[in-house]
TrEMBL record:
UniProt keyword list: Iron, Metal-binding
Record protein name field: Phytanoyl-CoA dioxygenase domain-containing protein 1
Cofactor(s) required, per the database record: Fe cation
Originating organism: Macrosiphum euphorbiae
Family, similarity comment: Belongs to the PhyH family. PHYHD1 subfamily.
Lineage of the species this protein comes from: Eukaryota, Metazoa, Ecdysozoa, Arthropoda, Hexapoda
Pfam families: PhyH (PF05721)
Length: 291
């Protein structure tokens, strides 16, 4: 039996569910050992933050992404703090192990634990079941969402940040803790991938601008809260998210962490990655396979 046939048999109805709703939850995607290896690796990253790095990440702001540290992170392992973890002078207000928002954006290439997960048979089987011809990984992130400081992620579409034409972006979001209503689980609007991409986040074409090296184009509409569905999932679960699905997460108001490993895939066999995207690699994208 070929890998393509095997993948389709394992996830026989995956594509129809994904096409209909724009997201799919796969329980027990990883076993306990694989889940713990990823979380242990993520926790070890907090012990190796380079001295002097104090870049804050917040999806609702543009100034934080105006610096070269953020723009050069496509081919590196870079560290980004929660706003609530630092005071106005950049001094830590919480323990260093709880201060990070995320680490990105080349874990899938530069860290063996995350590379092994990203390019595993489990992931390629999902991509085959979705019918992807030449899936490649443009970026990856370890997201912490720690208790007390883990902030809100506002409503957005991932294709705002990683635009491909035609759109073929798929997010792989792997829960490394139980994701609950209290600690900031994902919320999605089913079927919202059937709308347009509302907003683009690009490198500022005005190179002389002293304001920001990145800009937003377009406006993301306000959606009624009643349209959102919470995705409270157990650790080891995989959430597949279409690039155009509108989703968000709330602040972590619990005493428990909500760690996740996430990466994005697009089909380089049918789509072109935009040269305007904020994230630009110098080494290209490694395919998971080629049909």
């Amino acid at each position: 039996m070929s890998p393509a046939t095997e993948g389709k048999m394992i996830y026989e109805d995956l594509k129809s569910k994904f096409d209909q709703n724009g997201y799919v939850v796969i329980k027990n995607f990883l076993n306990e050992k694989e889940t713990m290896e990823l979380k242990d690796a993520g926790e070890k990253l907090t012990e190796n933050v380079p001295a002097g790095v104090k870049t804050v990440f917040a999806t609702s702001q543009t100034k934080q992404v105006a610096d070269d540290y953020f723009l050069d992170s496509a081919d590196k392992i870079s560290f980004f703090y929660e706003k609530a973890a630092l005071d106005n002078d950049g001094h830590l207000q919480v323990d260093a192990s709880l201060a990070l928002n995320k680490v990105g954006h080349a874990l899938h290439r530069l860290h063996p634990t995350f590379e092994a997960c990203t390019y595993s048979d489990k992931v390629t089987n999902v991509c085959r079941a979705l019918g992807l011809v030449k899936p490649v990984v443009p970026q990856s992130m370890y997201i912490y969402k720690n208790p007390g400081v883990g902030g809100e992620v506002i409503s957005h579409q991932d294709s705002t940040f990683l635009f491909t034409e035609p759109d073929s972006l798929v997010g792989f979001w792997i829960a490394l803790d139980d994701a609950t209503l209290e600690n900031g689980c994902l919320w999605v609007i089913p079927g919202s991938h059937k709308t347009d991409i509302h907003k683009r986040f690009i490198r500022n074409p005005d190179k002389s601008s002293a304001i920001s090296q990145t800009i937003f184009q377009g406006t993301h509409p306000e959606y009624e809260q009643s349209l959102y569905v919470p995705l409270a999932v157990e650790k080891s679960s995989l959430v597949l998210i279409h690039g155009k699905v509108v989703h968000k997460s709330e602040q972590n108001k619990s005493q428990y962490s909500r760690h996740a490993y996430t990466f994005h895939v697009f089909d380089e066999g049918i789509s072109q990655y935009s040269e305007q995207n904020w994230l630009q690699t110098k080494v290209g994208f490694k395919p998971l396979y080629i049909v």
